Amino acid sequence: MNDQIHSGDEHGPEQAVDHGALGDAEYAEFMELAAQEGFDLEDIAGALEEANAGPLPVLAVVGRPNVGKSTLVNRIIGRREAVVQDKPGVTRDRVSYEAEWAGRRFKVMDTGGWEQDVLGLDASVAAQAEYAIETADAVVFVVDSTVGATDTDEAVVRLLRKAKKPVVLCANKVDGLSGEADATALWSLGLGEPHPVSSLHGRGTGDMLDAVLEALPEAPAQTFGSGTPLGGPRRIALIGRPNVGKSSLLNKVAKEDRVVVNELAGTTRDPVDELINLGGTTWKFIDTAGIRRRVHLQEGADYYASLRTAAALEKAEVAVILIDSSESISVQDQRIVTMAVEAGRAMVLAFNKWDTLDEERRYYLEREIETELGQVAWAPRVNVSALTGRHMEKLVPAIETALDGWETRVPTGRLNAFLGELVAAHPHPVRGGKQPRILFGTQAGAKPPRFVLFASGFLEAGYRRFVERRLREEFGFEGTPIHISVRVREKRGRKK
């Protein structure tokens, strides 16, 4: 981006900035506001790029146990966050961190060691490594050069070829010139040049990261936030903890038995995509396996099911979160809601088994919703019975409302008129003798709505929440999370 900013072509530097979601006239108005308030082009470019970038490309670091994956991840991200022990199997969860190299930002996904033909917890680890490969944009395959290629390494190679993802081969534990001969032997894996690296000491990691940047796309291939939406019917992920009635709900909206329903929790393992016509519109429903607590301690199939649920959520546009209204709202329910919010998806809360509630339970449920789900009070709510079909006709209007909010855009002129009135009526509290002020703002993108506010100083979290609440009151945004980022004007010396 900076290269474009300073390119100084014949059209002038301003033409080099990506307008993002803004039209030409709106962008010109926006830049005029920026100039009046003392922001330069680089400030604007950086803020719009960050807000409108969508998800970062993902790099998965995979390999068999104890080859130094977590040490390499710590080296890449420049800090000690991934757990490292001289014992195989320490990393069990799939964990991601943000990294930067040569001005490019990306996510690094640390994984547990991959083993073939394993059971129990080891199968869980293998499953999440497979999922990491499936969802990543590129892969670093780490091999212990002091041991050489093992049968397990060969099995990982077959998995990588099947996935057809760009692969950078890392020959780890090369601490000197004598170890480079061991690294060259890894040409036999057929993955191209082995990059000799000592993740412990940092040797060779720069050259390897240069190769990683060549393998990573500038942006992920599939994105709703800022890129081209995936084609076809609108995608709805049915998510919730086990045995809340997701499969029953899908069967009811389809008006036939499409999914196996069993009172035993966890019957559904993989997402089942179903094209269903409702109200003259075709929708793609994704029925997912339930999410449980402490998924890393489950057997492999259940663990893999939780990962598949996350994958379904990533591919969906709207999440219908099914909650068992006959039971207290649980930590798992709140965690699933948080997953959908963090994924930036439109959201509908569906309270199932409503027909089984007596007046007392309904009273306490309302109190629970206020206290446990207050942070998503903006989500449309439907009270349904997947068993009897009660109020099922309200589900599609709620989904359409959420999608409308998810796609809503506010013109820059209207937004700044609103912000001006808001700041005048409710200024930011004075802190340390200073009163920061919102100068102007723009909506950098939709799906979900993303706003960039330019301010004279730091805006406290409470004031940001206040601004979000007033944005919803003024413009709607029902059924969608809102992302607000703030760019503070830097102090600059006067130009002569």
UniProtKB/TrEMBL annotation:
GTP 2 binds at residues 240-247, 287-291, 352-355. One of its GO terms (molecular function) is GTP binding. GO terms for biological process: ribosome biogenesis. GTP 1 binds at residues 63-70, 110-114, 172-175. Residues 57-220, 234-407 form the EngA-type G domain. It holds the Pfam family MMR_HSR1. SUPFAM superfamilies: P-loop containing nucleoside triphosphate hydrolases. The keyword rRNA-binding does not apply. Keywords: GTP-binding, Nucleotide-binding, Repeat, Ribosome biogenesis. SMART domains: AAA. PANTHER family: GTPASE DER. GTPase that plays an essential role in the late steps of ribosome biogenesis. Associates with the 50S ribosomal subunit. Belongs to the TRAFAC class TrmE-Era-EngA-EngB-Septin-like GTPase superfamily. EngA (Der) GTPase family. This is GTPase Der. It comes from Streptomyces finlayi. The gene is der.
